[in-house]
Amino acid sequence: MKLATYKDGSRDGQLVVVSRDLSSAHYATGIANRLQQALDDWNFFSPQLHDLYVALNQGKARHAFPFDPAQCMAPLPRAYQWADGSAYLNHVELVRASRQSEVPKSFYSDPLMYQGGSDDFLGPCDDVVVPSESFGIDFEAEIAVITGDVPMGATPEQGLESVRLLMLANDVSLRHLIPDELAKGFGFFQSKPATAFSPVAITPDELGEAWQGGRVHLPLLCTWNGRKVGMCDAGPEMTFHFGQLIAHMAKTRRVRAGSIVGSGTVSNKPIEVEGRREWPKGYSCIAEKRAIETVLDGKTATDYMRFGDTIRIEMKGRDGHSLFGAIDQTIAPLD
């Protein structure tokens, strides 16, 4: 099942069901007005939404209309919680190697996670508005899940059972603000502006065999200013799967339906080619590209994003069709 939220002038939008091929949609207002409403009573609402999804795919939905990603808000325009992990340890290793810093051993057994702002997410085609280019504007391509209720002390298996929907995310980072914030010891705040999510959120069954062990075994495609820069495989190198990330969240607190959990930047290890390391699958954030350049050449040649730059993030199934629709954004100045 595929769900989206259409803009209607309100803060929470209108829930729509979207066809599997992303060609058509149907308002779900006869069932649930908003996605959070459906998540709060998933066992009651999801079968009804699925019936509408089946009718839509069969061409039998009476009031279907062409689906337009530009009309989408984030599937959850605001959420009770947005917790972003860093589940791809290769990303951490690479960034630390560029600073000649070792990764603490605890990072391999205890997931990294921070709590981001969840009151104002961006739609997939909304501009990324930043006050200044000097902040070091970077995209971060990730996978995210939306949970149901999770009890305190949940196991990773219970965490996986709580996954209701999956999305793609652009977790924008302002790299030049990060060092001073981290030095304070309280973590990210101003350096993490609003996150954007894909046009649709999908149930795990839509991934078929690609959803295994709490990981999505498909490439994540990143296109910066029209040039493909990343095709990183999101599956095998995800150190902590989503069940483990959710269990980490729930260690000392209950997690409520509508919480969003991010994977962190999708990242792949290098390969050896004639004695030199290469990253043939590219990168999912500019900081990683700069780290690669520093590791290989002792300096970076890549700048962060400028006003007018574009970023497109998408994932396609094994049939070549887009699963979530594309995040397709432009960097813009604050008016």
SSE topology:
Elements: E1 2-6, E2 14-18, E3 24-27, H1 35-40, H2 42-57, E4 65-66, E5 81-85, H3 89-98, E6 113-115, E7 128-130, E8 137-138, E9 141-147, H4 156-161, E10 163-170, E11 173-174, H5 178-183, E12 196-197, E13 201-202, E14 211-212, E15 215-216, E16 219-224, E17 227-233, H6 242-249, E18 259-262, E19 271-273, E20 276-278, H7 286-297, E21 310-314, E22 327-333
Parallel strand pairs: 5-18, 7-22
Antiparallel strand pairs: 1-2, 1-13, 2-3, 3-4, 5-6, 8-11, 9-10, 9-18, 10-12, 14-15, 16-17, 16-21, 19-20, 21-22
Structure description:
- The chain is 19% helix and 27% strand.
- The protein has helices at residues 35-40, 42-57, 89-98, 156-161, 178-183, 242-249, 286-297, and strands spanning 2-6, 14-18, 24-27, 65-66, 81-85, 113-115, 128-130, 137-138, 141-147, 163-170, 173-174, 196-197, 201-202, 211-212, 215-216, 219-224, 227-233, 259-262, 271-273, 276-278, 310-314, 327-333.
- It has a 6-stranded mixed beta sheet with strand order 6-5-18-9-10-12.
- By secondary structure, the protein is an alpha+beta fold.
- It has 2 domains: 1-67, no CATH class; 76-333, Fumarylacetoacetase-like, C-terminal domain (Fumarylacetoacetate hydrolase, domain 2, Alpha-Beta Complex).
- Strand 2 (14-18) and strand 3 (24-27) form a beta hairpin.
- Helix 3 crosses helix 7 (286-297).
- The two termini are 38 Å apart.
- The chain has 7 helices and 22 strands.
